[in-house]
UniProtKB/TrEMBL annotation:
It comes from the Bacteria. Keywords: Signal. The keyword Disulfide bond does not apply. Pfam families: Thioredoxin_7 (PF13899). Residues 1-18 form the signal peptide. GO terms for molecular function: protein-disulfide reductase activity. The keyword Secreted does not apply. Gene3D superfamilies: Glutaredoxin. This is Tetratricopeptide repeat protein. Residues 9-128 form the Thioredoxin domain. It comes from Dokdonella fugitiva.
Length: 430
């Protein structure tokens, strides 16, 4: 799972609503008939934020009330329909909750894991509003600083830094002069500049923008911006890079103490805070500190799970990642079968275990787990599982069986996901 300022794990609805629409077009038609907004809740079985959101946020009376105010449609990102709508709506980061009006115009979106106390006020404000992005742009041009901030936030949600900054440049000079004094606008412009610089491989620009963003109070987003700083500074001289990262180590350690290792964590995404802190320690050459932060996270996850891996899938998956990041492979190998047993109804953990074994040259052990995953896989993830089955079969000298796997999967998936199909065919041919 990549972790960048805009790449988060996916959230999935934790409750079902009556007469759930079969696809997004059907959901739009239902919203139009009901004269209600449409909340698209993109989901997939492989993302750890689904587990947090399902257990901690997308349930209870507030979720039920949301289902009365809007048509709610869970959209599987691994399905052809889901993939097409992600592309259409420029959903580049997960989780993404996109609200459309009954005509299909976007009212707003929410990204990333969110605590319950933040999620519902945010989604309620979007649903209560009647402003589409085009209307907000008109208000911004007329001088509304609040609308300027909202439009910049919309560009940020799309990871469209260059386009957002270009739009800002089209505003009347006096509007920009007033907006430049607003701290929210300033922060959003800096984040858009960071997005632009990263997209253009402008490392110096990314470092400068990241430092400006990190100088502010960005709360739970800090790990994502530090990740961008780590990436942009990778080729810098050791001493210069250390000077950039050292202040962030202190800030991240304070975040862990204040917002993560407390009875009620303020940040929903605890994993990124832990792993980013370990990455900073590694970049600074402090192996002892890197080990300590991972050891603490592993011990904390185990304590909270109490041996019940079906208790909290988000937390159980965090434990998996911490063990992998700490290279504690024997413990990870012991954990995987327990995760498979705790969550038997999807392909994810047998696939991850099979892939992990295969990457360590243990093809004979990997193949049964990959075949188990294939029984549950579908859509795009069926192709991903098939790719590693082919790798395992080739490693075992069973090329004819690999050909059969490819033929069956292509028959099942048809024309969907051409990029993944090309990778599968290339692996077979190599």
């Amino acid at each position: 799972m990549m972790r960048t300022p805009l790449l988060f794990a996916l959230a999935v609805a934790g409750a079902s609503h009556a007469a759930a629409p079969a696809n997004v077009d059907a959901a739009l038609a239902k919203a139009k008939r009901a004269h209600q907004p449409l909340l698209l809740d993109f989901s997939a079985p492989w993302c750890y934020s689904c587990y947090f959101m399902e257990t901690h946020v997308l349930n209870g009376t507030e979720w039920d009330a949301l289902g009365r105010k809007a048509v709610v449609a869970a959209v599987d990102a691994d399905s052809p329909d889901g993939a097409a709508w992600m592309k259409k709506l420029a959903v580049k980061a997960l989780p993404a909750y996109v609200v459309l009006d009954e005509q299909g115009s976007e009212l707003g979106r929410i990204l990333a894991e969110q605590p319950r106390a933040k999620f519902y006020p945010m989604i309620d404000r979007i649903i209560a509003g009647s402003n589409t992005l085009d209307a907000l742009k008109q208000q911004a041009a007329g001088g509304s600083i609040e609308a300027v901030a909202a439009v910049l936030g919309a560009f940020q949600a799309r990871d469209a830094g260059k386009d957002g900054l270009a739009w800002y440049g089209t505003l009347p000079a006096q509007v920009r002069a007033n907006a430049d004094k607003d701290p929210t606008v300033t922060l959003q412009r800096d984040r858009l500049d960071l997005s632009r610089a990263r997209a253009q491989d402008d490392h110096a620009g990314a470092i400068a923008a990241a430092r400006r963003v990190l100088a502010g109070d960005i709360g739970c987003d800090r790990p994502y911006v530090v990740d961008a700083l780590l990436e942009a500074s990778e080729k810098q001289p050791k001493a210069e890079r250390a000077a950039l990262l050292q202040p962030q180590r202190a800030a991240l350690e304070a975040m862990l103490a204040r917002d993560i290792y407390v009875a009620t964590p303020a940040c929903a995404d605890q994993r990124s805070a832990v792993v980013t802190t370990a990455d900073v320690d590694a970049a600074l050459g402090d192996a002892a500190a890197e080990k300590a932060v991972l050891d603490r996270a592993i011990a904390d996850a185990r304590r909270r799970l109490g041996g019940d891996y079906g208790k909290d899938r988000n937390l159980a998956d965090n434990l998996r990642v911490y063990l992998a990041r700490a290279h504690r492979e024997a413990e990870l190998d012991a954990l995987y079968p327990k995760l498979v047993a705790a969550w038997p109804d999807d392909y994810v953990y047998p696939y991850r275990f099979g892939r992990s074994l295969l990457e360590r040259k243990r093809a004979a052990e990997a193949l049964p787990w990959l075949e188990k995953a294939a029984d549950k896989a579908y859509g795009e993830n069926r192709l991903g599982v098939a790719l590693y089955r082919v790798k395992a079969l080739k490693a075992l000298g069973r090329r004819d069986d690999a050909k059969q796997v490819v033929a069956e999967v292509l028959e099942q998936n048809g024309q969907w996901f051409p990029e993944q199909v090309a990778k599968l065919k290339a692996e077979l041919a190599s």
